[in-house]
């Protein structure tokens, strides 16, 4: 065990090109997935947060329960959808590509973005919107001001989504597989290296994953505090 | 004088509840108009309609001769502005709060800087530019909100209870700033208030709003003159009471408000009068104080409302009195509902209308 740990640290500090590649792919895939989820989640959250409509609480409840969807179930479902032989989207040839993982993770984390951002927008003093209008803002400028006031909560929604994306295994494994140099990620890497009995590599990847999550969260927390 | 805004047969309902009905009101350019009425009478809704942030359910709103329709709403909004009773602030610096409306209007940076500085000076907040707006005291926040509206130099300025819950120092800074812009820039001001004393001194004209209707309007002298004859309609405004006055041998006046409540005033009057005591002028204590105050009344606290830095209490002494004290005093005195307290105020604090 200690030997494995020692070799793991050697691997981390050796600048191994494969490890570097896995790290950058993981960051790229989870970062893109989060970005896409934010791009489609924030407009939805803005709509839900700023408007009163019939069934609003039902929609909100639906999004919060979607947060709990097991990654394995979503991964398996997307595998069927993207499957070349029988899947309805098989013709796109996306199965076992980083793009498929990005799409899958973007779907996975979107409910987190929508739920947390909606709460943040709803928590903004309702008079901010009227206030912006009395100062001459148009409807869209006034909505933007509400989003700006909710920025802290929206950032938190982004961080939580990224955490879920970079740490999940189910979607990455089902639609990404484990193609060396193409779809290898930190999480799938850990799983496969253990299967191959390369415990030192698995430990190295696990430590890197932990450090990444820790550093990114710390940085964003500092930014949030500065903003305040 | 030309008309700047006009409401024709305006009505507003919220989920079937009537907030305003049959409102016909002309606002003349350059005047200060006070909408005087009790809480919940529809004053705020009326202001919001004039600010084009609320649409009337029925009727028409005209601004400088133009009828407001959906299409020109955003453009009309640029020409008036409103300051809310409960100050909403953007979570940023004082400077950026004041500059917001000017940035929306895409003014050059130099102009913005110059106008923000001038507006902050008007409300005596110079040097506060870089402070986080939400860290200011209640009175300073209200002054900031006024500066943020004044900086726009709009034709029409709408103020909802601009000095409610403020200490006299902050209130006078605000009243002074309102009078200054009205005098120097000719800004038309419409302000909602339930403070009779303010309504009597600041405005050129008063409109009485009760139950979503405008009952009467006229100059303060006209309105207050008529009021003493139709007292009943006015009893809903806080700390305003109808009573019978009799002059004493010492030259003061004793007013019997009914229900065994008698108060003393310095002005000499007799017969039916209506009196007003500003909530800020009343001293509240747990024991009877030995003081020069001619009026000391014993009562029970029946309502407590927290308004940020100050607390408003309704005290029943046979008649309901509103009293305003600071949050700190409230906490130090350990007051609660049904507590027995004494109210004290000078005979000169009793305004006979």
Give the structure's gist in a few sentences.
Chain A contains eleven helices and no strands. With 228 residues, chain A is mainly α. The longest helix of chain A is centred in the first third of the chain and has 34 residues, at 17-50.
Describe the 3D structure:
With 228 residues, chain A is mainly alpha-helical. Chain A has a single domain, classed as Orthogonal Bundle (MetI-like fold), CATH 1.10.3720. In chain A, 78% of the residues lie in helices and 0% in strands. Chain B has 353 residues and is an alpha+beta fold. Chain B folds into 2 domains: 3-224, Rossmann fold (3-Layer(aba) Sandwich), CATH 3.40.50; 277-347, OB fold (Dihydrolipoamide Acetyltransferase, E2P). A 6-stranded mixed beta sheet of chain B has the order 6-7-8-3-9-10, sandwiched between helices. In chain B, strands 13-12-11-14-20 form a 5-stranded antiparallel beta sheet, with no helix packed on it. In chain B, helix 4 (109-122) packs across helix 5 (138-150) and helix 5 runs parallel beside helix 6. The longest helix of chain B is centred in the middle third of the chain and has 17 residues, at 168-184. The radius of gyration of chain B is 22 Å and the shape is globular. Residues 228-232 of chain B have low confidence and may be disordered. Chain A binds chain B through residues 125, 127-128, 130-139, 141, 145, 148-149, 228, and chain B through 48, 51-53, 74, 77-78, 80-84, 86, 88, 90-91, 100-101, 104-105, 148-149, 152, 158.
């Amino acid at each position: 065990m200690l030997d494995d740990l020692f070799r793991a640290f050697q691997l981390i500090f050796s600048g191994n090109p494969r490890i570097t590649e896995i790290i950058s792919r993981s960051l790229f895939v989870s970062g893109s997935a989060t970005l896409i989820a934010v791009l489609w989640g924030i407009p939805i959250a803005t709509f839900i947060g700023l408007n009163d409509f019939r069934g609003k609480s039902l929609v909100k409840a639906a999004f919060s329960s979607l947060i709990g969807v097991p990654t394995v179930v979503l991964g398996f479902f997307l595998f069927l959808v993207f499957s070349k032989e029988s899947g309805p989207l098989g013709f796109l040839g996306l199965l076992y590509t980083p793009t498929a993982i990005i799409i899958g993770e973007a779907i996975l984390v979107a409910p987190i973005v929508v739920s947390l951002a909606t709460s943040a927008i709803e928590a903004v003093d309702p008079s901010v919107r009227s206030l912006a209008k009395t100062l001459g803002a148009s409807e869209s400028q006034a909505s933007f001001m509400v989003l700006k006031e909710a920025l802290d909560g929206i950032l938190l929604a982004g961080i939580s989504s990224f955490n879920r994306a970079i740490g999940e295994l189910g979607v990455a494994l089902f639609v990404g597989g484990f193609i060396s140099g193409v779809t290898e990620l930190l999480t799938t890497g850990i799983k496969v290296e253990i299967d191959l009995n390369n415990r030192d590599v698995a430990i190295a990847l696990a430590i890197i994953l932990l450090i990444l999550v820790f550093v990114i969260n710390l940085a964003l927390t500092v930014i949030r505090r500065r903003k305040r | 004088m030309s008309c700047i805004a006009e409401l024709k047969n305006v009505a507003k309902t919220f989920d079937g509840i009537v907030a305003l009905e049959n409102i016909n009101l002309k606002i003349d350019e350059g005047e200060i108009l006070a909408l005087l009425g009790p809480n919940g009478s529809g004053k705020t809704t009326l202001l919001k309609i004039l600010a084009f942030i609320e649409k009337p359910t029925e009727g028409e709103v005209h601004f400088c001769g133009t009828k407001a329709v959906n299409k020109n709403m955003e453009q009309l909004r640029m020409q008036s502005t409103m300051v809310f009773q409960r100050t909403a602030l953007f979570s940023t610096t004082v400077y950026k709060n004041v500059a917001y409306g000017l940035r929306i209007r895409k003014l050059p940076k130099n102009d913005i800087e110059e106008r923000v500085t001038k507006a902050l000076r008007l409300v005596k907040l110079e040097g506060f530019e870089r402070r986080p707006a939400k860290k200011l005291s209640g009175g300073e926040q209200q002054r900031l909100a006024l500066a943020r509206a004044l900086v726009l130099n709009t034709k029409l300025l709408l103020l909802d209870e601009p000095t409610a819950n403020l200490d006299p120092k902050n209130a006078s800074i605000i009243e002074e700033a309102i009078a200054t812009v009205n005098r120097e820039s000719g800004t038309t001001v419409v302000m909602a208030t339930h403070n009779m004393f303010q309504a009597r001194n600041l405005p050129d004209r008063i409109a009485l709003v009760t139950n979503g209707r405008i009952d009467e309007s006229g100059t303060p002298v006209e309105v207050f003159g008529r009021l003493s004859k139709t007292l009943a309609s006015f009893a809903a405004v806080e700390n305003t009471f109808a009573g019978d006055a009799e002059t004493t041998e010492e030259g003061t006046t004793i007013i019997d408000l009914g229900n065994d409540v008698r108060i003393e005033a310095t002005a000499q009057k007799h017969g039916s009068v209506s009196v007003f005591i500003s909530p800020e002028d009343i001293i509240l204590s747990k024991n009877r104080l030995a003081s020069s105050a001619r009026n000391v009344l014993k009562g029970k606290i029946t309502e407590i409302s927290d308004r940020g830095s100050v607390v408003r209490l309704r005290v029943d002494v046979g008649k309901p009195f509103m009293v305003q004290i600071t949050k700190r005093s409230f906490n130090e005195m350990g007051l609660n509902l049904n507590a027995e307290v004494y109210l004290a105020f000078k005979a000169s604090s009793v305004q006979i209308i």
